[in-house]
Amino acid sequence: MIALSTEHRLATQSEIKVTDLGGEPYLERTNCEFGILGDEVFSRLDVDGETVYRSDRDDWVLAMAATGWGYAFMPKHLITHPAVVAIPLTEPEFWREVCLVTVRGRPHSRAVGALVQTAMKMKWLGGPARALRSLPDDPLPDDLSAP
After folding, report:
1. Are 61 and 72 in contact (CB under 8 A)?
2. pLDDT digits 0-9 by tens, 36-55
3. Whole-angstrom Cα distance, residue 59 to residue 34?
4. Which residue in 53, 57, 108, 124 has its CB near the most CB atoms, within 10 A?
């Protein structure tokens, strides 16, 4: 999502394209998981804008967005400031693949079991979750075995 002040010129749009952000000041979340990918996409599309603020604190980046200093990339659930709107970024769409791995036969907590069950019931990218593969029950190599 793109986080912007409710007063920003793009704040009323239903979606934002990367090209809409050309020349806009950028508020960088230094731990943003899409930082490098974003740089590559913006460069490829010849979209530029000055980075005016950097922080590893999401709340500080949101506060700067609320004042109208610029825009930031943020997950939707982090955009909680009342003076900031969350607008989906499109063209191109940014996404990531997340894998949940469990070990057959290894005991786990009820919380982990609930997480796995919930994840398997969700629709991901429009389809159901799927078990990709089961690995053979080969023993671990000597250098990875438990002491």
Report:
1. yes
2. 667 788 788 888 888 899 99
3. 18
4. 53
